[in-house]
């Protein structure tokens, strides 16, 4: 192997290891190992062939390693100790024992002692009491008791009402039910749990107000506000809550029904508005510039929502900023937005565009610049107009008469395309008006015939009835017949008659020649919209 | 460790109830020792031949010559053995035997030395201060506990459900109670209790031991008194022979005890309540359940198994009128508790109803409660653990959570404090300030910690496994 390796080295003109005969094989082996270690991912044979100058690609051939095994054993074991501790939150020296990491400080504070948070209670001196806190309804003893209880229970008023049992005072913390259940008999003079709150907070407020205050006024007033308590308001509120609960099932049902009714009214209101805007949109066309109909949640926040949405929408849809706040665009007024004003372009850039045959196409203003609205680049000749399928044979025929190939333009420039389109439009309008004309003529003819029959009947009395009937049947059969083979016949005829007939018949609008076959084409109804659509198409395209 | 707020100081939790005494280590999810509260005793020392027939001998200083507690206590037949229960209406009235029960649970079952562990004991919400102080005295003076605390089962049940405020509906063996708990405090004025479980029990007893149109009276002999029996068809008269040798030694109290046990087992096996209120047709349409008594008598119970338990929720008006002292039903207890509560509080409580106690495991009980409550309140949410262990030992579980919290350890009444202040400290510490604010924030963490442990350990528990499988499937 070694020989072949050196051979290849020489063949690849790589400097081979200087073979020193003086070195022992072991030493040389060691040297080699030191100088170049086989990288991962190359087989030993390959490495001995190409030597240390392995291509850098080989580094990426390293086979993926498995996830490293978790090293469970060698982690240092944490030592725990069953140790006694004292709790800093306790006043006595109770020694409890618990497991703790041996590394922790023996004299460290108990970690849970810090949760022993005490609220700062308000304490007053006798002097302060006589000066500020006198109240005919409260004795000093009861006030003391109240403050103690409040401190004990951290101002949890529900619990305070429950546990308040001052001996010798008026019954203050009496049954809540008296207040809550007998609303009719509720008397302002009855003492209620609210008295406790009122007394406590008013006393605190007085203390704050009258004590020297070290901080600024703002913090003092905010502290005062936090001790604010309005007894009357609280009682009223409780009454409301209680009355809410004392509703009978009927009342609840009625309320619910009313609520549903209101919702329904709101909904119909919204629907009406939507319909109105839709109607306006239809009346004034696609480009009326009406904003999208907004789904308002409630009639109260109606206006602000519209305003914000408009503001957001304004710039992107090409509104001028002044339009946004124009009073006519308020939703309650039936008014259309002013027509879209295109930004006048810089004359210089217009000149530049003209010079370089650049035609800029703008998106229609009320189409959002979304992905769906985006037109990719296209060949103009792909977008050549096609005649309507129903009219296609006739139109193609006219094109053939004009000697124009309408499916393939030799030079589909912008102008040429526009002209072709215009021509197509004119031709289809021509064909359609011809068709209408033919129908009208036929109608007149039929009506005249009927009139004639009736006149003759009148004249002949009952005698000519049979004949008239026969004619009537005959004409009816004619029409039926025409309907049956309408298309085929129409094509045949149009091919046979050629242009002359059609042109003549349309140009000389007075011609009374009855043409049964043109009558037979009965699909006239959609033609009115077809031309409009074509014009729309054109607008979109430029 | 600190994340969960737990810091275990190897405290013991003892929960004394009417049917059983539960004891175990704080931080565990189930009590280690569950022993019946009833015990057997001899009033007069009988002959030496019966003495010390099992290891559970009582204290020599006890009023009884011998006391039999635990697994082989009341349920083993002994000639002339009387049965006692230290509890009456959920309150301990006989502290000597209560102490013996606790000593047995801690010393003989758990094999711990009570003087080395802080002990948390539970009390019903209607406990008296005297009882509370007596319990502290026993713990400090006789059990030599280094620290002691007595906590309210209402609060503990709320904690076991991970709630600081809750309406705890606890259906025990002898008492049912509805306790409003706010921020870890029981509202005493809202507390409502009744002995409705005993009424249901006596109804069932009356129903079984009296003949009906279709069957004879059922003998409620326990298996201890039956020598042999033969299988019989459902409804057929039983064929069994009694152990005449034992009959003579049966005392009145033991007879009452075993009959009560048979009735209880019948209620627990076949009893149920209809989910949507009483309806004869629905009750008749439910499949009857077969139950076999120790005598071999067996029958299908259909309509009656619902009729008996319906007493929990509804009593006939004429029955209530004729018995002014009739215990209140569960709905009227709830109404009574609510009458004293602030309307704002009611909404909070209705959203946190905790159903607990072994009696609430009756078939369809929680569904019925939900339908009863939702009839008069909107937004009712009932927390009823599906795990029977959690339901039966809810008070113990709450105590286990509480006593393993780091912030709780400042509340223990230490021996030093006891010696300094005496009984006054018990009321002051346990009643006035049962749980302080910062503790409440930790309870929820503690509870989730408890749940995690529960799930880890619970896979050995068959019930738990079937429950999780049902939930998955």
Automatic annotation (TrEMBL), chain A:
A biological-process GO annotation: DNA repair
GO annotation, cellular component aspect: NuA4 histone acetyltransferase complex; Swr1 complex
Compositionally biased spans, kind Polar residues: 13-36, 517-534
Domain of life: Eukaryota
Stored InterPro entries: DAMP1_SANT-like, Swc4/Dmap1
Coiled coil: none
Pfam families: SANT_DAMP1_like
Domain DAMP1 SANT/Myb-like: 110-208
Ranges where the record places region Disordered: 1-39, 305-324, 455-542
Keywords, alphabetical: Chromatin regulator, Nucleus, Transcription, Transcription regulation
Extent of Gly residues compositional bias: 462-473
Record's subcellular location: Nucleus
Acidic residues biased stretches: 478-492
Assigned protein family: Belongs to the SWC4 family.
Protein name, as recorded: SWR1-complex protein 4
Organism the protein comes from: Pleurotus ostreatus (Oyster mushroom)
TrEMBL record, chain B:
InterPro entries, per database record: Actin (IPR004000), Actin/actin-like_CS (IPR020902), ATPase_NBD (IPR043129)
UniProt-listed Pfam families: Actin (PF00022)
Keywords linked to the UniProt accession: Transferase
Top-level taxon in the UniProt lineage: Eukaryota
A molecular-function term among this protein's GO annotations: transferase activity
PROSITE patterns: ACTINS_ACT_LIKE
Family that this chain belongs to: Belongs to the actin family.
Protein's UniProt name: NuA4 histone acetyltransferase subunit
Organism: Pleurotus ostreatus (Oyster mushroom)
Gene transcribed to yield this protein: ARP4
């Amino acid at each position: 192997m070694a020989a072949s390796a050196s051979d290849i080295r020489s063949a690849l003109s790589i400097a081979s290891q200087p073979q020193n005969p003086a070195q022992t094989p072991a030493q040389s082996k060691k040297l080699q190992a030191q100088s170049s270690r086989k990288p991962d991912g190359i087989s030993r044979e390959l490495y001995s062939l190409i030597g240390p100058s392995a291509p850098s690609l080989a580094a990426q051939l390293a086979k993926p390693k498995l996830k490293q095994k978790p090293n469970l054993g060698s982690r240092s074991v944490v030592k725990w100790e069953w140790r006694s501790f004292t709790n800093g939150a306790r006043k006595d020296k109770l020694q409890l024992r618990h497991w703790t990491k041996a590394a922790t400080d023996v004299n460290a504070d108990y970690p849970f002692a810090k949760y022993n948070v005490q609220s700062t209670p308000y304490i007053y001196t006798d002097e302060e009491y006589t000066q500020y806190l006198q109240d005919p309804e409260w004795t000093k003893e009861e006030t003391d008791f109240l403050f103690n209880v409040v401190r004990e229970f951290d101002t949890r008023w529900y619990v305070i009402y429950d546990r308040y049992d001052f001996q010798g005072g008026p019954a203050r913390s009496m049954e809540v039910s008296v207040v809550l259940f007998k609303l009719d008999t509720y008397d302002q003079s009855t003492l209620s749990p609210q008295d406790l709150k009122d007394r406590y907070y008013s006393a605190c407020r007085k203390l704050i107000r009258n004590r020297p205050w070290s901080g600024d006024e703002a913090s003092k007033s905010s502290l005062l506000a936090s001790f604010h308590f309005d007894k009357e308001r609280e009682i009223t509120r409780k009454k409301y809550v209680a009355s809410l609960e004392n509703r009978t099932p009927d009342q609840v049902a009625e309320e619910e029904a009313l609520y549903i009714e209101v919702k329904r009214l709101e909904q119909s209101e919204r629907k009406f508005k939507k319909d109105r805007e839709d109607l306006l949109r239809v009346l004034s066309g696609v480009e009326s510039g009406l904003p999208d109909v907004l789904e308002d949640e409630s009639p109260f926040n109606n206006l602000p929502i519209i305003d914000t949405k408009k503001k957001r929408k304004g710039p992107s849809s090409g509104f001028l900023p002044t339009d946004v706040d124009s009073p006519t665009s308020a939703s309650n007024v039936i008014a259309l937005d002013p027509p879209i004003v295109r930004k006048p372009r810089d004359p210089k850039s217009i000149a530049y565009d003209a010079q370089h045959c650049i035609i800029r196409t703008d998106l229609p203003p009320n189409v959002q610049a979304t992905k769906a609205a985006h037109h990719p680049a296209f060949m103009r000749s792909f977008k050549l107009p096609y005649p309507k399928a129903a009219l296609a044979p006739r139109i193609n025929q006219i094109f053939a008469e004009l000697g124009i190939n309408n499916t393939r333009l030799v030079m589909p420039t912008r102008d040429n395309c526009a002209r072709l389109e215009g021509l197509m439009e004119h031709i289809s309008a021509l064909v359609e008006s011809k068709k209408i004309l033919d129908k009208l003529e036929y109608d007149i003819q039929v009506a005249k015939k009927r009139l004639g029959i009736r006149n003759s009947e009148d004249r002949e009395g009952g005698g000519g009835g049979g004949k008239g009937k026969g004619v009537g049947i005959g004409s009816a059969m004619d029409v039926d017949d025409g309907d049956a083979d309408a298309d085929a016949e129409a094509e045949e005829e149009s091919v046979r008659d050629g242009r002359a007939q059609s042109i003549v018949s349309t140009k000389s609008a007075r011609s009374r020649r009855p043409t049964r076959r043109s009558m037979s084409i009965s699909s006239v109804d959609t033609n009115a919209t077809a031309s409009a659509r074509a014009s729309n198409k054109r607008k979109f395209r430029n | 460790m600190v994340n969960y707020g737990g810091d275990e100081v190897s405290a013991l939790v003892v929960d004394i109830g009417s049917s059983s005494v539960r004891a175990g280590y704080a931080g565990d999810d189930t009590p280690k020792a569950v022993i019946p509260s009833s015990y057997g005793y001899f009033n007069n020392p009988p002959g030496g031949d019966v003495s010390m027939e099992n290891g559970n001998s009582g204290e020599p200083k006890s009023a009884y010559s011998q006391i039999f507690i635990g697994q082989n206590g009341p349920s083993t037949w002994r000639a002339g053995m009387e049965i006692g229960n230290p509890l009456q209406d959920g309150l301990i009235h006989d502290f000597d035997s209560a102490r013996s029960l606790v000593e047995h649970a801690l010393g003989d079952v758990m094999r711990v030395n009570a003087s080395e562990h802080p002990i948390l004991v539970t009390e019903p919400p209607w406990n008296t201060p005297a009882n509370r102080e007596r319990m502290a005295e026993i713990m400090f003076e006789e059990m030599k506990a280094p620290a002691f605390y007595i906590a309210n089962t209402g609060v503990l049940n709320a904690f076991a459900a991970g709630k600081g405020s809750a309406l705890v509906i606890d259906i025990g063996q002898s008492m049912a109670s509805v306790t409003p708990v706010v921020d870890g405090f029981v509202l005493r004025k809202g507390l409502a209790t009744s002995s409705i479980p005993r009424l249901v029990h006596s109804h069932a007893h009356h129903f079984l031991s009296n003949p009906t149109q279709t069957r004879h009276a059922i003998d409620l002999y326990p298996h201890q008194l039956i020598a042999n029996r033969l299988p019989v068809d459902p409804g057929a008269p039983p064929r069994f022979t009694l152990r005449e040798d034992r009959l003579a030694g049966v005392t009145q109290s033991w007879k009452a005890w075993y009959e009560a046990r048979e009735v209880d087992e019948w209620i627990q096996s076949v009893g149920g309540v209809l989910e949507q209120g009483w309806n004869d047709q629905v009750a008749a349409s439910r499949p009857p359940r077969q139950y076999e008594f120790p005598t071999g008598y067996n029958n299908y119970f259909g309509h009656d198994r619902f009729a008996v338990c319906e007493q929990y929720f509804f009593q006939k008006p004429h029955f209530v009128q004729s018995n002014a002292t009739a215990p209140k039903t569960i709905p009227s207890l709830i109404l009574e508790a609510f009458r004293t509560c602030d309307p704002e509080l009611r909404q909070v409580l209705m959203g946190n109803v905790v159903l607990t106690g072994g009696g609430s495991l009756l078939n369809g009980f929680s569904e019925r409660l939900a339908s009863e409550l939702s009839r008069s309140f909107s937004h009712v949410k009932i927390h009823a653990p599906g795990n029977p262990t959690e339901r039966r030992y809810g008070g113990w579980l709450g105590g286990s959570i509480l006593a393993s919290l780091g912030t709780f350890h400042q509340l223990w009444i230490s021996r030093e404090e006891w010696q300094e202040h005496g009984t006054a400290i018990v009321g002051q510490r346990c009643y006035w300030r049962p749980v302080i604010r910062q503790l409440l924030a930790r309870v929820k963490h503690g509870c989730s910690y408890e749940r995690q442990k529960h799930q880890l350990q619970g896979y050995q528990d068959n019930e738990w496994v079937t429950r999780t499988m049902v939930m998955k499937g």
